[in-house]
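Quick one, T. Sequence first:
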Amino acid sequence: MKLIHFFLAFIIPAVMAAAPEGRVSERPRYGTNYTVPFAHAFRALKTLGTDHRTAIDRDVYHMARLGLDAFRLHLWDVELADADGNLQDNEHLELLDYLVNALQNRGIDIIITAQTNFGNGYPERNSDPYGAFSYDFPKCEVHDNPLAQTAQENYLSQLVNHVNRYNGRRIADDPGIIAIEINNEPCHSGTEDEITAYINRMAKALRNQGWKKDILYNVSHNLWRTPAFYRADIDGTTYQWYPTGLVKGSRRRGNFLPVLDDYRIPFDTIPGFNRMSRVIYEYDPADVLDSYLYPAAARTFRKAGFDWITQFAYDPVDMAAYNTEYQTHFLNLAYTPGKAIGMMIAAEVTRRTPAGKDYGKYPRDTVFGPDNEFLTSARRNLAMLNDGVNYFHTNRTDEKPRNPKSLRHVAGTGSSPLVETDGTGAYFLDKLPGNIWRMELMPDVYVTRDPFATPSLNRRVAEIISDSVGISVALPDLDKSFRFRSLESDSILRCEGGRLALTPGVWFLGNDARLLAALDTGQTYAGGRLKLNEYVAPQPSHPALSIIHLPAARRNTDGSITVTATVVADIRPDSLVIYPADVNFWNDSNRLYTMKRTGRNTYSAVIDSAAIGKKDCFRYNIVAFAGGGPAVSTWPAGTSGTPLDWDFDKAANSYYSAVTAYGSGIIPLISPGRDADAAELSTVPEAWQGVRLTHRSTAPESENRLLLHKDAHVPTEHLLLCKYVADAIERGIPSENSRIVLRLGTVEGIDSLNVNIVSADGFTYSAPVAVKSGATVEVPVGDLRLSPTWLTPAPYPSFLERRFIPDTSAAPRLDPAETESIVIDAPASPEEMNLEILGIYMTQ
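Structure tokens:
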């Protein structure tokens, strides 16, 4: 991409002389979206009894703590305007004022999207307290209907004339609000000329009220009318990116770095393109908990020339435990610490990467930056900034700091060569004058439910445990017996043995006790954006005991299996005991296994090979006992009592199952049972109607099957059946001699398929096969060849590429044991298509 902003600044100074006062393009910025003044967040905080202003202060502090300097909010006009577009001076507007002022006090710049033109209900039902104009028109007519346009014109004029009650400035004059987007994700039904006229009318309404800053408009929607936007009297264009789709309903897993490798805009040669600034108003790798993705996305955005990047959306700390606002997104410093540190790193990527800079194709771009100071790794679920001054990491790492003596800022989760910890929360270390280090220690967090499933304010998805954290710090200017003090106490303590047990909060570390005692904790740091005495964390959730456990994927070399579990509770149990599924109340010699405590909240036991025998799986419960008392609960169901109680509720019980071998060397990949076995259907190009994936059984005695169906004449070229299978592969350990087997039922309108497996490194290996009804098709793994990777599910916006083409010189040789996903590609024909799958497995 061209260095557009350099060109504008130096080659065409006359243009810049007439430019608006606020410029998105004056410097790159990175931040987030956040919606507390409106809609569900506003209502949910009320339900939870939380003061909105307090919530805003707490969250804005965390945004500043993460180094974010950009904020975008789309206003819910249905909560701000009546049927004629008159601005309502209500609690929503007052909270908007408060939020704007709080952000400006932290040095965070703002883009406001003036209207959403849709309801305020999601995920609940809509309400219409003011008779808002947007409820009077369908979304795809509100920008084209003359009556709606008049209401919007009135609303925009009054909005930018509004005076913030906290800083005394009109929105039009507020230097912290650097741009306004006319609307959120418009849906136009008019002609190009009508669209241009609408945009110009709204822009004129803004400028007539003294608006002299950037005016933005969305160009990643309404792609059949793109030229209309570039003929309009605006200053910048806005885009979104949801590279992993939206609302899967469960967590996505895999290597998403190929998905984030490129953001190619297909209309970048359109007249007017290069005079516009480019804004990412929303983006998120949705339904993903991994921490390595945000820096990779920021790198790709800068390659595409974006100057403003705002993730969607930051969860308020006072309701993040439920993830009800947007179930497909989950981001908060306290509840997703690794992802939050990833945001901190992404902000640095944005500021340091020149517009248009290309660091090459994946995997070469996984180490990048002016001095290769950034790293992203899917295998390690790790992103890093390591430049000799800053040392940030999103997960445990063994990477050594480049120059420990010059370090000034450390931020991370998990252990590193600088910090050894048994905590799960984030921590920050900032060097102050006098060789004093300020440590900010967040409490432990445990995700106990899938945060991307259907949410509820009655169901927590994560728990906060405010327990003491074991931690040791190895900084070059701290002695082994350094002194330390807490924010709340003047007492100076000495570190003995190099390890501390610290409660979450703020601590100060140093060698000189006098300097620690004299420290003014009210002073600012981080360029005046933060104060030494600030700290925000959620209150401990005091959960009832629960157990987090993933059954072993395979046997140990001696035939045994290791069972490990994490206990989430305020008070640790007296013991955890494994009860095999075959224990019996009438048997006096049931063999049980007491688990040993191996960490602060972790327990482990080994089940010997003799107890497992030749079973294909080992089924068991874990029972937690209270101190000296009866059983607390039997897991995974959390049932009261133990399986050996005479009145144990067996109907409510369920079991863990460790697969210890697959019979006959078979590794099931897709097994239609009572459902689709977590398989997903995707289409290229994306088809919204006429295609479906269904689970069925054609007769009571027949086998379950998956049916991929396409109606005739549906405009799509490929049907893709996709599933993450790494767990099954890990348990089965395939070899180069393995074969992929497809058992098929009815096949209509299809004569061939492409069988693809995707490796843990994100590369795809495929082979074509002929198919017919009732066939069993075998594909030797050795026949698979490196090929482009399908990007599924469909990303948004829809103009993005659906295939990643690898650099063949960088791709490793296929190792079947590294298989992560399977993708069955059915090339589409114009006629109706049906493909029944009875099962897909891998065998020797």
